[in-house]
Amino acid sequence: MDRDTLHRFLYDMLLARAFEERAAQEYSNGNIAGFLHLYPGEEAVAVGVIHAAEPSDYLITTYREHVHALVRGIPARQVMAELFGRRDGICKGMGGSMHLFDKQCRFMGGYAIVGETFPVATGIGYSIALRDLPEAVICFFGDGAVNQGTFHEALNMASLWNLPVLFVCENNHYQIGTEIHRHSAVVDVYKRACAYNIPAEKLDGMDVINVYEATRHALAKIRAGNGPQLLEFETYRFRGHSMADAGNYRPRSEVSSQASRDPVETVIHEAGIGYPSQAEIAAAGPDLVDQLVCHVSATGHFNEQHIENVRREIDDVVEDAVQFALSSPSPTLQDARDSLYCNRRHETLLEASHHD
Amino acid sequence: MTENLMLWQALNRALDIEMASDESVFTLGEDVGLYGGSYRVTEGLYAKYGEWRVRDTPISEGGFTGLGVGAALTGMRPVVEIMTINFALLALDAIINMAAKIPFMSGGQFPMPLVIRMPGGVARQLAAQHSQRLEHTLMNVPGLRIVVPATPQDAWWQLRQAIASDDPVIVLEHELLYFEKGKLDPVTPPPPMHQAIVRREGTDLTLVSYSRMANLAVEAAQQLAEQNIQAEVIDLRSLSPIDWETCARSLHKTHRLVVVEEDCRFAGAGAEIAAGLTERCFFDLDAVPVRVAGLDMPTPFNAELEAASIPRVEDIVSAAVQLTGTASRSG
Ligand SMILES: Cc1ncc(C[n+]2csc(CCOP(=O)(O)OP(=O)(O)O)c2C)c(N)n1
């Protein structure tokens, strides 16, 4: 792994963590309202996958998407302002936390209805294939989403027409409070892909380098004309499902063992169920941000001072984002109308003359 | 040069012209390709444009309508055919939560040049699950446009305009109109796709309708004329937006309103039309607006009951006679 790439991973993971923790704080401060689904614990997936993609590839994701947006290159300022519902947000305050879009970055949106992203990704893939372009679309989804009909409909079509779609499952084992073995008859998500003849594998999603390599490999297969691929990354979210969720359904020790590698026997006893298993937790390892930090300093890529500098730089970026968001005005009703009527092309609508 | 042809042929030509002139236009849906479309609308296009532009899909309404959304996001101009509106219920998430909202939620970054065509209405003894209209459901969704062509001329122009539009447009076709003939004049410039037209001039009352019912209203008006009642017939052509101006102008002249719709009366399109025109034209009206609508029940299978469950020409005539009678008594 070259130094530049590692540096980008490190920067983005630290930024992701700092941004999300600050968002939580701003939620408590009352600056962010509504549903806020945070990403701590899962950073390696977004960072590894998105860095493996080309700028010409499309991304589409869920309501837990701030980090995907940041890693993709949408400035923290505009993401934060959108969470605040302000006019300078990336969607002018019309989308909010769960609906970040950026046309320029080919960031095709966060979608709040579980399962919606599959058909849209398939459509983007169709559009690429029809025009025979060397692009791909990456579709992020949670383990809970695979029970939705759209998953099956979309995988069937993507495979049938050999579309350039990379399906990326962020398996954090929970669909809000329902653990995977209580929501899915097949706990290995990747196995479902074989029903549609789509090559798939399950990987450790706590190791960013691993995620990156696997994604590059999968994208290379797609670009070589092999059609859709599916990657299942095992990960874990340290926080509740959203800010509205304290996460009481998870044994405390399960969360802490994920974070600090406590003896895992307790988890299994407390949970009284088969998940997470010793092996899985061992594979997941300790807090992934710390893991990466240790890795880069242990391998001599960056010394502690450097890492400290990066942290400080990021603190400034996040602070600046919050100040930017705070100083941005609320959008007006006219802004809302402009967003609604953004489509007009060859025609004027009658109703426009009534309301203007 | 003006030609006489069937409504499906007009749609077929419209699609053909748009596909020929713009490579980003493609169509997809169940059996639109090799088979040529359940109502022949895509006939011949598969041979001409190939399977990537005329795509047969699996039975996955939610999936392939969402696929259309994704393709539209990347600048394509997909025309999704949903075999009949009854199956559109499975695609409502893609239509309502995605197509209609993405342009807005993205702060205006993404246009949505998506057309969704679907036949609907009460046809012949298809029973409750295959016979209904859902315009009220779609009319309630900001961001969607809905056109309801009743003639080959309108079908041809409105589909072309829908494809050219950057808004998501629903084209609601009627199963009983596909094989009806009408004139197609390709030269005269069209009205905007959302503009209503006066199909027949009159002075005594206004019949506001759309789709197949507009044709029945014209027939009813002819019968009314024999009784010396001159009905003006307005074909709305578009249900979202609604061209209130054309309707208001007519009411200013006739002072009486009958709304004719095929769908259930309760909370239907007619309710919006009647309320909207009452708000706008209250002081022009000599009588309470009348709604002639389908019965509030699923469509019965039995042929006679089926016919009785939706407005017939005689229902429109008798409502009009009653309304003009009431008005003259009170006036
Ligand atoms: C169609 C639909 N049903 C239910 C919900 C409510 N809901 C929001 S998130 C969620 C859990 C999704 O879990 P998963 O896909 O595993 O993603 P994760 O939140 O774990 O990242 C549910 C049930 C929804 N948003 N959409």
From TrEMBL, chain A:
InterPro entries: DH_E1, PDH_E1_Alpha_Subunit, THDP-binding. The keyword Oxidoreductase applies. Its cofactor is thiamine diphosphate. Residues 12-266 form the Dehydrogenase E1 component domain. Keywords: Oxidoreductase, Pyruvate, Thiamine pyrophosphate. One of its GO terms (molecular function) is pyruvate dehydrogenase (acetyl-transferring) activity. One of its GO terms (biological process) is pyruvate decarboxylation to acetyl-CoA. The keyword Oxidoreductase applies. This is Pyruvate dehydrogenase E1 component alpha subunit.
From TrEMBL, chain B:
The keyword Nucleus does not apply. Residues 5-180 form the Transketolase-like pyrimidine-binding domain. Its cofactor is thiamine diphosphate. Keywords: Oxidoreductase, Pyruvate, Thiamine pyrophosphate. Transmembrane segments: none annotated. The keyword Cytoplasm does not apply. GO terms for molecular function: oxidoreductase activity. This is 2-oxoisovalerate dehydrogenase subunit beta. It comes from Thiogranum longum. The lineage of its organism: Bacteria, Pseudomonadati, Pseudomonadota, Gammaproteobacteria, Chromatiales.
